[in-house]
Amino acid sequence: MKGIIYKTSDLLEMIDVSRDALRYYEKQGILNPRHNEQNNYRQYTDKDIYRLLVTDFYKKRNLSLKEIKTLQQGIEIEELESLLEMKMEELERKISRE
Prior knowledge:
two-stranded antiparallel ribbon, about 5% strand, Multidrug-efflux Transporter Regulator, Chain: A, Domain 2, mainly alpha, elongated, 5 helices, about 100 residues, about 60% helix, single chain
């Protein structure tokens, strides 16, 4: 069974993301939308929406796109814990300086 296909304009309405951000995430390998063969428009799936939401979640926690991409590709839980602890320490240092 084929899932729902979303156009770029659909994502812009549903999620607080810009067209430029979508293209940037695609360029960075965070998103990999299909392209309509007839008009070459990008086509997004529920999986792409999930990846966008996860990306936003981690960006708000100061993870870089490289780190987010690593998380989305799958890492061991111990590595995830270590990465998140490191980010927490960075935030605590930043807060203490302010």
